[in-house]
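Thread: "does anyone have the structure for this chain?"

Original post by V.I.:
We have the sequence but no experimental structure in hand. Need at least a predicted one for the grant figures.
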Amino acid sequence: MATDAAKNGVRRSLVARWRDRADVRPHFVVCGSDSLVYTLADELATSGRIRLTVITPPDLRPGVPDLNDLRARGVKVITAARLDERTFRDAGLAGADALALVMPDDMVNLHAALCARAVEGDLRLVIRMFTTGLAYGVRRLFADCAVLSDAAMAAPAFVAAALGEVAPTHFRYAARTLNVAKRADVPEHSVLLTLATSNDGGRMTVLPAEPAPDHQRPTDLVLAEATGSPAAQAVTARRLARAGRRRRPWLSIGRALRVGLTRKLGIAVLVALALTAVSGALLSHFTGVSGFWRSIYITLLTMVGSSDVEPDNTPAAQAAQLVLTVAGVALLPLITAAVVDGVVRTRLALDRGEVLKVHTGHIVLVGLGTVGTRVLRQLTDLGLDVVAIDRNPAARGVEVAASLGVPVIEGDASRAETLRAASIEHCQALVVVSTDDSVNLQAALHARAAREDIRVVLRLFDDDFAQRVQAAFNINISRSVSRLCAPAFAAAMLEREVLATIPVERHALLVATVPVRPGSPLDGSPLGSADRVESTRVIGMTAAGSEWVDWLPDPRRVLAAGDEIVVVARRAGLRVLREQATPPLADAAGQ
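Reply from O.Q.:
Generated one for you, tokens below.
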């Protein structure tokens, strides 16, 4: 029985290998263990023109959707404890076109890349890296290699959302630097294309037809030529930084007293002070003492027991003197106890990472992992005041925060008292980018309860959940890092002519060049046939044999083989345009 089962297994394996060899579609392999591996595979699986294999470890990180959804779409999913040569051979990497290594560990990805090159030398590598210096060295190590950082790509979007501005996206092509901005922030003559616009109901349209001048809105998102003027984000950051410098010192004094004094000891000190003040006032009144300083003088001396017995005083004056002396005897040790207790409690609070100073106009950042560290650096680079929170004292960004002079509160951001310690009531925005969806959502809801108008930017791993949370809880912005970054990783594997990836809300627009091949449907067609509203928009073209780019060319111009079109497109639109630019025979051979 066992022998028959083994023979059947070998037979099925041989059949599977024969089918793989018979499938001439381009083969792509993706390796990862967190939500990015699923989102990237989902992006790639939308194209039916490729064969896709996903390799994951046995223990996936929290937040990864069910991989069976990928299997149902024809994706081959393999589980392997180690990314080595044997694993890659079993996955059919030999002869593959591209490999994406998106494990959340730089060293694991680098080791896997070296193993993969031993299996298939002519292979395009797309590697996820956090460490900038290491990424530069890896690019030089491999000939055909793209090194991307999801943290570096996502951080600008979170920073822009915290400031209420457009994520800074710019790229240079044909001696021009183009950037993304609001229409109101750039001169009209520098605008190349409207990327997105919203109607009165708030519905966003991506890549619309160019609106008439009387229908243009200042908030429209446009692609424009950079003019050298300060970016709107930098202007907003400077305004917020100036607002943050308007300190209210009495708030900090109040917090320090609350931290340093227990409630009972504080009440006892206040009662003793009140008795002292009232008794001193009565004593001065009944003994006929005039003048403020003389009243203080007699009160203090009597309080410390330096007064003489006055048998000739009235009973009221004697009673006031007696109460004042007893209150003084009680007050002095109470003050001593309060000072000692305050010093001890304050020291313990500082050791726990509590921030005693009340900040105003600042940004509260929750989570100092890979994404949080990038967000922290960018916020401080913009001159903004930041208070960070992380429950892990060994988090990646804690040391960075210390070097930047940013206070870090060690605690659970899902607890209201932790957020209050970060002065959540007086901040400009809350940016929550920890790796725990539950903590992130609870922190956002506590912030909303503390102040309704606070701007909340929330990271959630599941994109569908992020959309629903944003609508249900009135969160300003909720983002999935993997959804933000997956299009760029997919573009690096599929479309080497992609110049930039532009995030627009939950959409990702690609700026790409598409060459017109001889005999393709576009060869001999007007340029306008490549332009599709809400799908693909042409912004320029280069004639065959020329290096000069004609920006916003005449749509009636007839295309010829060798021409190159510059477009801004959605992924599906770019795929359709590439098919139009490919001759039918080559297209059939590619299938």
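V.I.: this helps a lot. The radius of gyration is 33 Å.
O.Q.: and Confidence is low (pLDDT under 50) at residues 5-19, 250-257, 586-591.
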